[in-house]
Amino acid sequence: MKNSPTELRFTEVSQLTSAIPRAKSNNSPCAACEVRHLAVCSALQDEELKLLDEIVRFVDLSAGDSLFDEGEPAANVYNLTSGTIKLYKLLPDGRRQVTGFLFAGDFLGLAASEDYIYSAEAVTPVSLCKFSRSDLDILMEKAPQLERRLLSLARYELAEAQDQILLLGRKTAKERIASFVLMLSERAVRRGEQDNPVSIPMSRNDIGDYLGLTTETVSRTLTRLRSSRAIVMESDRKVTLVERQVLEEIAEGF
Amino acid sequence: MKNSPTELRFTEVSQLTSAIPRAKSNNSPCAACEVRHLAVCSALQDEELKLLDEIVRFVDLSAGDSLFDEGEPAANVYNLTSGTIKLYKLLPDGRRQVTGFLFAGDFLGLAASEDYIYSAEAVTPVSLCKFSRSDLDILMEKAPQLERRLLSLARYELAEAQDQILLLGRKTAKERIASFVLMLSERAVRRGEQDNPVSIPMSRNDIGDYLGLTTETVSRTLTRLRSSRAIVMESDRKVTLVERQVLEEIAEGF
DNA sequence: CGATACATTGAGGTTTATCAATTTGTGTGG
DNA sequence: CCACACAAATTGATAAACCTCAATGTATCG
Fold first, then answer.
1. Parallel, antiparallel, or unpaired for β A119-122 and A66-68?
2. What residue has its CA nearest to the C1' of C27?
3. What are the tens digits of pLDDT across the range B99-148?
């Protein structure tokens, strides 16, 4: 079993966020959810949360575990309550594109049509709330504001996807890496964590597959940003953004 | 004035689709709309179409005209009834990423938040139905199935965006071009046009900015596909897919 | 503490971009 | 309707960015 400080920390967080609601399961775990304010569930009132309680199931995964694979029937949607997940697509020869990373509070399953259009795998230990799509469809009838919330989420994800398209189509390696560490920082803030230093839960290989680069280019580019004093690597998986303004200008292509 | 065969054809189509509904404007232009079955409007019943009639405004643009620019307040949404539009983002030094092309029946404005997150420009002469977002919000109250339709559209666009992310992050120039001509063909079919030969309304430069390549690479890659007998260029702006199966295998990375 | 996976660094190659010239096509005006 | 002007597309030569292959270093985990 993995006992590194990093992994241990994630395990603890996981136990925390899932243990609390589950302890009072007779008493609405969803109402007590620590990440509810971040999640789709924020659209629901107390009454509707009770309906959620009836259909939610909890899932825990270890780092590296697969949640589902591209092409499988999209039977379920999820809310991530702790940890990090990566979504990815594969080409037949093994080339991989990570289409997104999910963190606590993120919803998983919006882009799903009949089948999942990407695979999902735990990057760290994760805890999830799982809903069958049929249950959720029934709930949406009773709670139309849930549909509005999903539309708003979809719009937000579309905007993010277009930023990623700009990044992949036109930005240099340096610009991509700067954009990436800033994105990590902004998303940490959004879920109430410190913005600096930023934890990097995923490997260099995952970062490369997300940014359309190789592991080696990611590593070299981080080294160059380090040499230029824009960042400091506290460890492989933790970075301090020393010159945020400079990083933002690099990221935007100035 | 533009008198080439190509431009003339587009002008004629434009007059057709816009003239018919406008001629019976007392009698529900939206009900008579030729592209309604393709558009968001297909979600609406006769009664609701009359509400649409009250808030719709018609817009025509010439090739090259701008519809709106990134950063402007997103006051309106649109339905494209004929012609082709490109959406794009710019970096400060002028690098451009085309994030999508729109054809007849396509909806424009889903990803809009407070402000437009991309610029929109007519590639050919176009006709559009224009709705103010506030009017549409009111209509959505009366016709909740419109919201459901938009969510379904957003899901579809998200899936498309992820395919584009895979293309930009991991596919070679040859794979990108093959994917592109197949996409053009598939979208032509969806709106009831012939699947082969396929008309290419946009310039090599626009194609490059969409696929993350330069004009020159687009041109060279088309030449190579032509040499390998997978395609035949009927003209600069029209391509016959000779070996569709081969193109599909190239596009998917086999 | 040793084994293993991950990250970094280096040398060299490939793809695609850049710069430049030519060809082709399109639109305008005579 | 034809010729000229201008824009778009193609082709070629060279360069740069990034990838590939390989070796070394470093952190992690049993």
1. antiparallel
2. B2
3. 999 999 999 999 878 999 999 999 999 999 999 999 999 999 888 899 99
Please determine whether the domains at A5-152 and A171-252 fall in the same fold group of CATH: no
Q: What is the pLDDT of residues A152-194, one digit of tens each?
A: 999 999 999 999 999 999 999 999 999 999 999 999 999 999 9
Q: Which CATH class is domain A5-152?
A: mainly beta
Residue A76, CA atoms < 13 Å, CB-side half-sphere:
16
For strand B238-241 and strand B198-199, is the pairing parallel, antiparallel, or unpaired? antiparallel
Residues (190-249, chain B) with CB within 7 Å of strand D atoms: 203-205, 215-216, 218-220, 222-223, 233, 236-237
SS3 B56: coil
Q: Does B171 touch chain A (CB under 8 A)?
A: yes
- Answer yes or no: do A159 and B117 touch at CB < 8 A: yes
Say how far apart CA A132 and CA A135 lie, in whole Å. 5
Residues listed for chain B: 254
The residue whose two tokens read 């968001």 is B40
Task: Tell me A38's DSSP state.
Answer: G
| CB-nearest partner of A169 from B150, B158, B168 | B168
- Whole-structure pTM value: 0.91
Option in A112, A147, A170 nearest B151 (CB) = A147
Domain boundaries, chain A: 5-152, 171-252
Of residues 179 to 238 in chain B, which lie within 7 A of strand C by their beta carbon?
Answer: 212-214, 216-217, 235-237
Phi and psi torsions of B240, nearest 5°: -100, 130
CATH 3.40.462.20 fits B171-252, yes or no: no
Q: Is the CB of A224 under 7 A from strand C?
A: no
